[in-house]
Amino acid sequence: MKRLFSPWRSEYIESFHQETEDKSCVFCKAAGETPEDKDSLVVLRGEFIFVLMNRYPYNNGHLLILPYRHISNLSDLNENERLEIFYLLELSIEALGKALKAQGHNIGTNLGKVAGAGIEDHLHFHIVPRWNGDTNFMPVLNDIKLISEEMSKTKSKLVSYFKGLNK
Ligand SMILES: [Zn+2]
After folding, report:
1. Which of 8, 16, 61, 130 could form a disulfide with 126 if both were Cys (CB 3.0 to 4.6 A apart)?
2. How far is CA 145 from the centre of its chain?
């Protein structure tokens, strides 16, 4: 039987929710940050929607597309947010392809705890870039130092790409 690949359902990816000591929303906190903030993983701020790197990525360049507003249902999105989510999904895929040479992508969202959502109150879409042979990446994630170095390199590549588009 062919197994459906859905990395955004991995508990590992969402596990950072339990690690935050206070119960405040990490996405609302990120919504107030900019790509220029050194410790921020925000790579692009749109008008209603922003693009954030996942702090515990399944793969290098794993992105989240999410509204600034703390809303949990697709039906809570207004028309502007709905349009910009799709626009930034497309733009992010382009950036991952051009800046990181991604060869494919998985896109998904978890709606509700029963579906595996870790941060169930703040709607977000995952984009996981894929490369041939990347299934070997997971063991590497155990090395925290390596991840943070790799992530800051990836962040600057993506931020440069997005900045280049605005010129
Ligand atoms: Zn929130």
Report:
1. 8
2. 20
Please state which CATH class domain 7-165 belongs to: alpha beta
How far is Cα 106 from Cα 40, in angstroms, rounded to an integer?
A: 24
Q: List the shell of residues around ion ligand 1, using CB closer than 5 Å.
A: 25, 27-28, 70, 122
- CA dist 158 → 34, 70, 114, 117 (Å): 13, 25, 33, 26
Distance 112 CA to ligand 1 centre (A): 14
> Taking the CB of residue 16, how many other CB atoms lie within 10 A of it?
14
Give 29 Cα–ligand 1 centroid separation in angstroms.
Answer: 7
Ligand 1 center from residue 46 Cα (angstroms): 16
Q: Where are the domains of the chain?
A: 7-165
pLDDT digits (tens, 9 = 90+) for 76-98: 999 999 999 999 999 999 999 99
The pLDDT score that the predictor gives to residue 89 is 97
